[in-house]
Design a protein that fits this description.
The protein is about 25% helix and about 25% strand. It is an alpha+beta fold and about 350 residues long. Helix 6 crosses helix 9. The longest helix has 21 residues. The two termini are about 25 Å apart.
């Protein structure tokens, strides 16, 4: 099924944007792992809506309710089930969208796929709201990986014309991730965050939206995780990252820029660092042949501008079969990128922990 992911640990996400609750089932977690539920709540809060002037006005506490899978705060081997209540839904704002699909949104494709029976309120199962249970599952994996010495962090690299400093590909540490959390927006350079905020506010004032790029890294991974062909680390990460609504592109290491270089410029030369084998550069993004090589795993994800904007847009009436104009109502993010940062971290954690168990 399309809402399931994983090989050794399997996650299954359920619910709709305006259903009573959304949630996730996680099967395959080893028993005996202590889970910090307070830390999990703090992680979910990073993604939660209604916390700033640059996000949607919808307010959800996003408190995870763990129904099973823990005994005394420790994984017990049973499938872990988490629900998150929806408490601030306004379904009436979306009635028009059953007949008039939003340009560049899933409304029309879902109408064809499900014969008009899809839930359009808040985007239904296509909503970014479903990234909350993704973060719940990923938040657990982040904790487990940290106990193994593996750390994952992401920051906003670009919003509109505003850019942050990129990670240094061969020299990324958990300290870099901690520094990001200390800024109002998840960036390495505070001034870049302020410029991004202005880009978002300008788009919002014009009834428009703006997209951006998130850069993510994982450090502490041993060499040898992943497989060639279809179970490579790139495949596993991309497969779950594209489950985040709005993600439209992904590149690892030098990515598309590497296509413009010669092999002598793009190859990562090896050297001995004591008894450890490392590379002078990291254009491979820490992955060779689908398998980790011990260097930081590094990639970037492009997110499109939010389709739900206040400006009038050309669309069609499905019932009348004629052209019409749509002005979207409701509460929407003028830029989904800031709230997508923990989603990318969560997705990466699930993919890498699954690969770790499969090594």
């Amino acid at each position: 099924m399309s809402s399931q992911y994983g090989k050794k640990i399997k996650i299954s996400i359920f619910g709709q944007s305006h259903s009573p609750a959304i949630g996730v089932g996680v099967d395959g977690l080893p028993a005996g792992i202590k889970i910090d539920t307070d830390e999990l709540r703090s992680f979910l809060k990073r993604r939660a809506p209604g916390q700033s002037g640059i996000s949607t006005a919808r307010r959800e506490d996003d408190v995870p309710e763990i129904l099973s899978g823990l005994a005394g705060g420790v994984t017990c081997g049973a499938p872990l089930a988490i629900i998150i209540r929806n408490e601030d839904a306004r379904s009436a704002d979306y009635r028009e969208l059953r007949d008039i699909p939003r340009p560049s949104h899933a409304d029309y494709a879902a109408h064809i796929k499900y014969g008009g029976h899809q839930d359009t309120a808040g985007g239904g199962h296509f909503s970014g709201r479903l990234t909350a249970p993704l973060c719940a599952a990923g938040g657990l994996c982040l904790q487990i990986l940290r106990g193994l010495g593996i750390h994952i962090g992401a920051h906003i690299l670009r919003i509109g014309g505003a850019e942050d400093d990129p990670f240094v590909p061969v020299n990324i540490s958990a300290g870099d991730f901690n520094a990001i959390c200390g800024n109002p927006l998840p960036v390495l350079r505070r001034e870049a965050g302020e410029a991004m905020r202005q880009q978002i506010l300008e788009a919002r004032e014009k009834g428009d939206s703006v997209g951006g790029v998130i850069e993510c890294a994982a450090v502490g991974l041993p060499a040898g995780l992943g497989d060639p062909m279809f179970d490579g680390i790139e495949n596993r990460i991309a497969g779950i990252v594209f489950g985040i609504p709005g993600a439209k592109g992904i590149e690892f290491g030098s990515g598309f820029a590497g296509a413009e270089r010669r092999g002598s410029e793009n190859n990562d030369s090896f050297y001995m660092d004591g008894r450890n084998i490392k590379t002078r550069t990291n254009n491979s993004g820490g992955i060779l042949g689908g398998i980790t090589n011990g260097m930081p795993v590094l990639f970037r994800v492009a997110f499109k501008p939010t389709p739900s904007i206040g400006k009038e847009q050309n669309s069609v009436s499905l019932s009348r079969e004629e052209n019409t104009v749509l002005q979207v109502k409701g509460r929407h993010d003028p830029c989904i990128v800031p709230r997508a940062v923990p989603c990318v971290e969560a997705a990466t954690a699930i993919a890498l922990y699954d690969a770790y168990l499969d090594r």
